Every structure is written in C-alpha cells, then in structure tokens.
Amino acid sequence: MKNKLRLLLILAFIASVNLFSESIDEIVAKMESKNGIDKYQKFKTVRLEAKQEVMGMSGAMNFFVKKPNKIRIDMDMQGKTIIQAFDGEKGWSVNPFMGTDTNELDKETSSQLQSQINIFGDRLINYKQLGITLSLVGVESVDGTDCYKIKAVEKDQKEFTYFVDRSSYKTLQMKAKMQGPNGEMELTTNLKEYKDFSGVQIPTLMEIDAQMMTMKITFTKIEFDKNIDDSVFKR
Prior knowledge:
The chain is an alpha+beta fold. The protein has helices spanning 2-19, 24-34, 37-40, 107-115, 122-125; strands at residues 45-54, 57-66, 70-77, 80-86, 91-94, 102-104, 133-142, 145-153, 159-165, 171-180, 183-197, 200-209, 214-224. The protein has a single domain, classed as Clam (outer membrane lipoprotein receptor (LolB), chain A), CATH 2.50.20. The protein is globular.
C-alpha cells in the first residue's frame, strides 16, 4: 500500500514537472519566433480595415497605428463615424451620437486605447521593457485546445490573462477587467482564424464578450509600413 502511494506521488510529481516544463521566457520566445512577432516589431506603422458587428448592427472599422505611441480607431455606425485617438500625448474622441464636440478621453479610456497599439501580441514579448510581470499559473482548455494560462500584471496593477496554445504558441484568448458604464466588468476576447501577413501570423477574427454585449471584428485588409501622417492622430 505504501509503495503504491509512493508511486502515485512520484507520478504526480513528474506530471507537475511536465506541466510547467517551459519557463515564461521560453514560452514568450516561441511565441515570437513561431508567429513572426519579431518581424511585426520592426514595422513602424500598421493600417487595418475591418468589419464590426455589434448588437445587430454592422459597419466599417479602420485602425491607424504609428509606433511607439499613436493610434486612431474609426468606427462607422448607422451612417455616422465614432473616432477614438491618442496623438502620443493625449487621447481624444468624437461621438456624433453624443454631440458634435471633440472630447478629451479620461485617463482610464486613454490607457485602454493605448494598449491597442500592441494589438498583435508584442506587448507580451516586450514585457520586461514595459515593466509587466508575467507568471505561468496553469494549463487550461480553450475550445478543446490546451493552453498555457499566463497572468500579466501591468505597472499600474491592471491584470490581464492570456491563453496561449501549447502547440502553435498563438494567443487564443485574453481576459481583462475593465471599467464600464455600470462599474467593473470582465472582457473576454477570442482570437481566431490566424493568417499570414508579411510573415506575421495575425488573427483575422476577434470575438469580444463584454458580459451584456458581444462584438465581432473581422479584419479584411492589413498593411504594414505604409506612410501615415501625424496629422491623422491630431484633433
């Protein structure tokens, strides 16, 4: 009986070692090399065209990114265009449904917008430079695929959870807590239908669940290193 128990303990120990046989740095390195993120980091600008579907409505969506710190997102809805942008110093927005004025974004919304500059994963790759703390907390299934569950704590103590495919090292899901109109809410983003663009593996479908609302973004065109004038990001 004691020998059987000892054997079970040994097997459990071996299983636990195999479970975390890769360190965070090894996982991050494979994410970078297997998915072309090393190439993506060299691009200075990113231009994305997409279709959004939310609450039974659909419309065009355009992203403009100029590294290291400029971003603009245009969302067409019911014939009007909602704009959110960060010009490198301040965030601003235009929402025709709330009036015609240009408004300055609050700190929380501005921070959330800036995080989208690293929309395709190089934020994890550069976690040390960005002051992010990563920890491997387990292995969890996402739609039947075993994934590394990685917890990320930003410098401002915001927490994100990433689920990385143990085989392809693609990020399949992200979870975060965000401030919504009615308080804190959990945001779950599923990343699907990866395709190759200029040697970079890009998820062309994002499904976002914000508890009471779901949104689907399908990328139809992705361009790197096209000239984007700084005026695009100004009010």
